[in-house]
Amino acid sequence: MPTSVAPSPALTVPSWEGLFPPEVVAVTQADLLLQPQLMPEERAAVARAVPARALEFATGRSCARAALARLGCSPVAIPVGAQREPVWPPGFVGSITHCRGHCAAAVVRVDSTGPGAIASLGLDVEPAGPLPDDVANMVCGAGERAWIERHGPDLLPWDRLVFSAKESVFKCLFPLVQRFLDFHEVEIVFAGEGDFQMRALALAEAERHVRGRYAIRAGFILTTAIWRG
């Protein structure tokens, strides 16, 4: 039987509308009618976790199952892989994200192939505030820091946005490269309002396929990345 985890108080959560193509289903905790639950295969991942972490994990899995259900998938466990990545049922890929106050999952079918088909995706949510200076220096490369300096202070916390975009890109690339990337292996390039691209000398193939979107809603930075074949 699934294990229930006590829900947190209701919070205002942002919408992911417009950040994914229509074939992708995104679900947030606001879409869940029942309290988040864990399946037996998932419990070990948070057996020693503090309650807040266990709640985030359970909510993420519940969001992912709700998204899968909308695509016709029966309830299924989403266990943790060897590198802590979510393991999706055959024929689907997805991504899960959470920060304090928000949790979401996005899923798409990958049973179609050919040019333009989605092969992988990633999403990330962060509080819409600047990074501490030491973290920003670790996350942002020279090109990104120069870009941020040229734009100066404005309404967007660009360093945190770079961090979130990289997290989405890393999640998107992981199923394809099977390793976690260093922050300085990828450079984020803001291509237009709400859009970004990536540069990666060691992953030239990925540059041609990965595209991202971003928005700031309800006090959160939302980023998404899609790999199309």
Overall number of structural domains: 2
Structural class by sheet pairing and helices: alpha+beta
The shape is globular
In percent, how helical is the residue content?
A: 25-40%
CATH homologous superfamily label of the largest domain: 4'-phosphopantetheinyl transferase domain
In the CATH classification, which architecture of the largest domain applies? Alpha-Beta Complex
Mean pLDDT: 89
Per the CATH scheme, the topology name of the largest domain is Ribosomal Protein L22, Chain A
Number of strands: 10
The first-level CATH class of the largest domain is given as Alpha Beta
Low-confidence stretches: 4-10
Through-space gap between termini? 39 Å
Proportion in β-strands: 25-35%
Spatial arrangement of strands, main beta sheet:
6-10-9-8-7
> In DSSP terms, counting alpha (H) and pi (I) runs of 4 or more, how many helices?
6
The profile of the biggest β sheet is: 5 strands, antiparallel
The SSE string, one letter per element, is EEEHHEEEHHHEEHEE
Q: Taking Cα atoms only, what radius of gyration do you get, to the nearest Å?
A: 17 Å
